[in-house]
Structure formats: C-alpha cells, structure tokens
Amino acid sequence: MGTRMPASNTLTALVLQGGGALGAYQGGAYESLSAAGREPDWLAGISIGAINSALIAGNAPGRRAARLREFWQRITAQVPSPAWAGADGPLRALANDWAATWGAVFGLPHFFQPRVGKPWWPGAADAPSLYDTAPLRETLLELVDFDRINDGPTRLSVGAVDIESGNFVYFDSQRQRLGPEHVMASGALPPSFPAVVIEGRAYWDGGLVSNTPLRHIVENLDGRDATIFQVDLFSARGRVPRTLAEASDRDKDIRYSSRTRALTDMLCERHEMRRSLRELAALLPAGRRADARVTQLLRKLGADAPDPTVTLVHLIHRHKNSETQARDYEFSGASMLEHWDAGRADMAHSLRSLARARHEVEPGSFRVFDYTAPDLETAR
Predict the structure, then answer these.
(1) Which of 2, 118, 230, 256 could pair with 15 in a Cys bridge, judged by C-beta atoms 3.0 to 4.6 Å apart?
(2) Radius of gyration of the chain, Cα coordinates, nearest whole angstrom
(3) Contact 211/17 with Cβ under 8 angstroms?
(4) pLDDT tier at 358 (50, 70, 90 boundaries)?
(5) Which residues of 36-49 are buried (b: 16+ CB within 10 A; e: fewer)?
(6) DSSP for residue 152
(7) Is residue 380 very low, low, confident or very high in pLDDT (cuts 50, 70, 90)?
(8) pTM check: above 0.70
C-alpha cells in the first residue's frame, strides 16, 4: 500500500507551511519550480500548505500549476479587490483590511461559509466553529485525484493535531490511503473551522503544534540525498512595532516563524553531531571500533551510518508595508496575484542561487540557503 518513492538515491521535496491567504505565494513558488523541471518526489504541508500539497500531488505534472491557480481564483473570486487603492501604502492597507473583513463576514466560495447563528447559541454543539468547511471538501474532490495521491509516484504527508491527546500526527500516503478529510484535518484551525473526525479521532490544524513539516521529511529520508525546498509564509525578521496593529502583526510573524528557525538549527546541529561521532569513532584503535558496545552506542545515537547530503533551500514570504495583521485571511484576487508573483520570482532567484552553489556541496553535509532579497542569500 502507499506511494512508490523514486528508484534513484536522490529526491526533491517541497515543504509548505501554513499561513492562510498567504498560501498563494506557495503556488507561485511551485510554478517556478515546475518550470525549471524540478517536480517534487515528496510533498509535506500544514494547513493551507497541506491543501496546496494535495493539489500538486493529486494532479499530473502538466496540470498542477493550472489546478493550483484554479483553486486560488475560485476562492478569491467574490472578495472585493483592493487594487484600486494602489500597490502599497496606507490607503492600500485600509483596503486590504476591508477585503479581509468581507471574507470573514460572508465566507469564501468553494472554501468555507458562515454558520449563521449557530456558533453563538449557548451550550454544546456537534461542530463548534464559526464556519462550515463542507465547500472545501467538494472543491478538493473536484480538483484533486486522490487515487493518484495514493497510488502514484509522488508522496504526500500532511500534519494535524489529535485534539484529545494533544499529539502531532502525520497522515502519509506511504503509510495509509489519504482522502479529503486528511487534508481538511490539517487545516481545521479553531475556532474558525470545525474539527475533522477520522477513524473515531478528532483533529485540528497541525499549526497549533508545528507550522512546518520539515522534520518529518528529514527524519525519513532513509539514506537518500535530498534537495528540500521549504516555503514559509511568515518572516522572523521585522522592525519594532509603532502601533497596536503593527504589534499584532509582528507577534504573528514571530510566533509562526520561530519554530521553523529553531527546527532548522536543531536538524543542522544534529547532522553535524552525528558526523563528529563517526569521526571520533574512527580514531579508536581497530579493536575498540569493533567492540559491540561502541557499535550499539553509535546505532543508538544514529551515527552508525553516514548521513545523506541535504540541501535545504529556504524561501520566506516578505510582506509589504500595506499588509496588515489580517494578511493571512485577506483573500482578495489582487493580493492573491501579488503573493503568487512574489513566490514565483523568489523561487526563480533561489534556483539560480542553488545552481551557482552546486559545486560547493560536500557529501554528507546539511546546507541551508536562506533567501533574503534579490542578489543576497546566505548559506550555512
């Protein structure tokens, strides 16, 4: 059962973070990746990243970008456009907030609709939430071929949280058959969206615990070298807030980006530690190296075999001054296109940077390229 991974000892993975309306940036990033002939062998997503991942994995390569674009055009079609207010500036910020309010009040076609009256009724409810996500299920069934996800060559992993245990879980096409409910569970952010019940267990949005599924991929490479493209929607860097609105905005950035940075640092440090342990073991006399206790310790520490070579290309959405704290639920068509174009440009630039650095890759290393701005990237 499950997805067949590539026969090659190398793979390309795409990791998509949660971030609501900002997910259009991931659509543009994938479009550039596909245009460069770098179709992912493995997709892993959280929340809106899970939806985008399913749209990619659940379609043939030649149709993926079009399906992504169709999804984003559908859900943003009826939201008032703030484009009349210009590309940036205070007036555009007000127009963006108005568009966000409109979507919050009336819902989004093909995505979610308000539960009029029901959320405010005192007492228990079958699905306590502000919105009904039944339209999303219908959209996924229409735009995603789940048989292709479960039986095709591209692996899909989506993260969610078991409400009762509080534990983070992955639904993985290599381990179980996936359906629309698994993707919806990954994006069931309370109290807006209802929990999704799968085999008797109720699940919420995976972003409650971790907004990036990078660790799941790195820990399951099974010795294969990998190039991992991680597309994040919140930036750790930003200026000191001057208003309450800016404080709320900055708080959201830090909360959702901090785990990504900490996780990446941890994975790099662990990779280097295992390599150092193998080098240390190699310095032992031959008799001691063959000792069963040494072998057991190396295996216990995960240092009994060389690590794969990992190249992590990290793209981060950098929002404009006119994007407020509502930017992750501002689903206007104008903003969607701006996010899409930014993702497309950033991925194209990162691919050029990766091509320049390819000759410097050391076998068994864990390299991270952080996209920061045109003509500026750092590697470690």
Answers:
(1) 230
(2) 22
(3) yes
(4) low
(5) eebebbbbbbbbbb
(6) S
(7) very low
(8) yes
